[in-house]
Design a protein that fits this description.
Layout (H helix, E strand, L loop, with lengths): L1 H5 L2 E4 L2 E4 H4 L7 H15 L11 H12 L6 H14 L13 E8 L2 E7 L6 H15 L5 E4 L13
Parallel strand pairs: 4-5
Antiparallel strand pairs: 1-2, 3-4
InterPro entries: FSCA_dom_sf
């Protein structure tokens, strides 16, 4: 019994395991422990962030979008509608027989009314929504973009 106290043995599921194997670490000095933790801190640190400069093309378009806001006049609304025709070429695609045209009907203060004619690639309500968002983006004074007549939103073939 006294031999067991001098040389302790841990029991695990009926097996005798020597203390050195049960606690598989050796004594280390505080200096080596400090070196280990500092090494771990440096190896875990996030990578440095590298700032990539913008290309000249990106800078040019960023300046255009900032300076592109216009005043609310009939001429500017017509100009923006012409720009929208080229920007939304997938909506106003004449190569496949889509003859859709969006025209300015009226400007009444901050309210703009649009007239839709012809066939569009997308639903007319979607065309009106996209044009309205584009007009509001380019001319911030516009509060609402509406259709001249509700019948113009009907996508049935007899309205073309």
């Amino acid at each position: 019994m006294s031999a067991n106290l001098l040389n302790p043995v841990n029991y695990h599921h009926r097996h005798q395991i020597p203390r050195q194997r049960c606690f598989g670490f050796r004594r280390t000095s505080m200096n080596s422990l400090h070196m280990l933790t500092s090494h771990l801190q440096h190896s875990i640190s996030p990578p440095l962030q590298v700032r990539v400069p913008r290309s000249p093309v990106t800078r040019r378009f960023a300046k255009i979008s900032v300076s592109a806001s216009l005043d609310l006049t009939e001429d500017n609304v017509k100009l923006v509608l012409d720009d929208a025709r080229s920007k939304f070429s997938h909506i106003f695609d004449t190569s496949v027989g889509m003859t859709g045209v969006a025209e300015l009907a009226e400007v009444d203060g901050p309210f703009v009314t649009i007239r839709l004619k012809g066939r569009f690639w997308h639903e007319r309500s979607l065309v009106l929504a996209r044009l309205g968002n584009y007009l509001k983006e380019r001319i911030p004074e516009i509060l609402e973009v509406d259709i001249e007549d509700e019948k113009q939103l009907d996508d049935s073939p007899e309205n073309f």
